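A reminder before we start the practical. When you read a complex entry, don't treat the lines as separate problems. The point of joint prediction is that each chain is placed relative to the others, so the output describes one connected object in space. Small molecules and nucleic acid strands, if listed, are placed in the same frame. In the example below there are two entries. Take a minute to note the order of the lines before looking further.
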Amino acid sequence: MSETIINVRDLSKRFGNVVAVDRICFDLARGSTVGLLGGNGAGKTTTLGMLLGLLLPSSGEIRIFGEDMIRHRHRVLPWMNFSSPYVDLPHRLTVRENLIVYGHLYGISQINSRINQLASDFDLTEFLDRPAGKLSAGQKTRASLAKALLNKPRLLLLDEPTASMDPDTADAVRGYLEDYQRETSATILLASHNMSEVERLCSDVLVLKAGRIVDRGTPSHLIARFGRQTLEQVFLDIARDRIAASETAQ
Amino acid sequence: MSIHTKRAWVRIWAMVLRHYYLIRGSWPRLLELIYWPALQMTLWGFITLFFETHSSWVAEAAGILISAVLLWDVMFRAQISLFLSFIEEIWSRNLGHLFVSPLRPGEMITALLLVSLVRTLIGVGGAAILAIILFDVSVFALGVPLAAFFANLIIMGWSLGLVVSGLVLRFGQGAESLGWAAIFLVQPVSGVYYPISVLPDWLQPIATAIPSTHVFEGLRAILIDETFRIDLLLNAVALNLIFVTTSIFIFFAILRYARIHGQLLQLGE
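Here is the predicted structure of the whole assembly.
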């Protein structure tokens, strides 16, 4: 039986009267890459925020590597990392300075060689000594990914990992993430609106709507069940409240 | 030292390094460290020169105003340095990354205090040396009590800095002006340039509830009466214990509030 890395039980988050996440339950096995799909306001970012400990749940339980994230998140944070285009690195520090600072925060040994390796992997070498605030949107996303991989995390939470990247760079980054996942057996949870990205990277997909998990399965399973050609069509069906073809047949 | 303590110090060092990089890469920030303390001291130096010939009180204790302005600046620099270092993370939308790293809030605060200490020493130390050169007034002549005054003022500055940083976390960047204004609310009742006996009767109890008041009263006791008042120092220490405990409690309570309401992800430019 595969090891469970993330275990979420009856997780809810309310902001006043608004229920952002409503009693969701899921497990993520070691070495899996799971997509978190949903429209705007579906609860993806809130879920990621709670998994990371940035947000306290209203109720429910989160265990990561077997630890209670609400009480003991600092025990597991060294093994995790996170990247989001909506959370920046300090603008006035160069990319190298940012990575050195985060390298120390994560207790990385041989920081410089790790930075050079990641700079080469993410095509950032020529930007290492440029202030992070002067990078293009795509370069910022790559710098953020480099930061997210500094500590060779066993659990990687990614929010829109290829946002603002040109198709060529985005393809290379997806390839890198596939290789990283294969080589390290890391677990990846990915929130994305890019359906072809989810189809390519994810072995499993959780579909969120109005704070609830409304469907779950492999991309091919979901496509077949909805009788569609692509995951994007499935996404639109769910967003527009069309039910799965298999359910109609029943 | 245990491995956990060593790792904690490495993380604290990382945050100090982050602020070193920031200041090193920005000449306005570098200049600002010394600019305001030096300007304030120079202004009060000239005022002192004028009062020495027009006020027996100032003439009696040469350097009383310059020493007061330098010590006031210790508290002001401590508060504003801590506040600016914290708000820098909000301006750069970096809090999300920091709080998902192994850095603990207590380690972040320790780093902020260290950065504030260095910035205060550079700013006020530079102004103190300038006071010797320009006006022949040495605050260092206070001797050992200076260290006690410095420690009390910097701790009170940090307490205020933590509270106003927390308020920005709670109310967003709209509350940023509080960071600049809060300490000036304390200044009139701290008796920086005058004894608190000049304050209205109803204001004096408030003044005596503030640690800095006892420091400035103690400063005047040394410079005018040539007496070191241990009672005033003990008052300042006791009040500072209350101030610092309360401010840490407030900061952590606001941090919890921010984690409940999702503000660690939302704050930014």
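Discuss with your neighbour: The mean pLDDT of chain B is 90. What might explain this?
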